[in-house]
Amino acid sequence: MSQKNKLNFVAEAQIWKDHIETEREAARRWPSRWGFLLTSVEELLKDEEKQPPKPKIPLPQHLQIRPVTPVEKYIKIHPSPPVPQTTQGFIGWRSTVPGLELERYYQIRSNKGAFYKDLKWPNEPTD
């Protein structure tokens, strides 16, 4: 029998009793610590004096807020122009123009030459 499968029932029972005792102690202390959460807001605010509303004073014309003007009156939004053709689409690895792609016959062609030519390596790997 492996060490994992051996159970100590006495220790497990004591751990369970400790958990239960901790829960009971927390339940006993809860009202003194958190009992104020059970009081309703209306009951808490019943002793508060209600402040009378302040009288509204009419503002002079130059201080009054003007009504909101819609943004469309000042800002005109036109449709976006078409996406411009980039150099990636014109010349590059995935060129849309057939004569300008850099890959021919699945080999990369570079006008500076290839690195393997500088090192005088063969085109294809050999075993």
UniProtKB/TrEMBL annotation:
This is Ciliary microtubule inner protein 1. The lineage of its organism: Eukaryota, Metazoa, Chordata, Craniata, Vertebrata. It comes from the Eukaryota. It comes from Anolis carolinensis. InterPro entries: C20orf85-like.
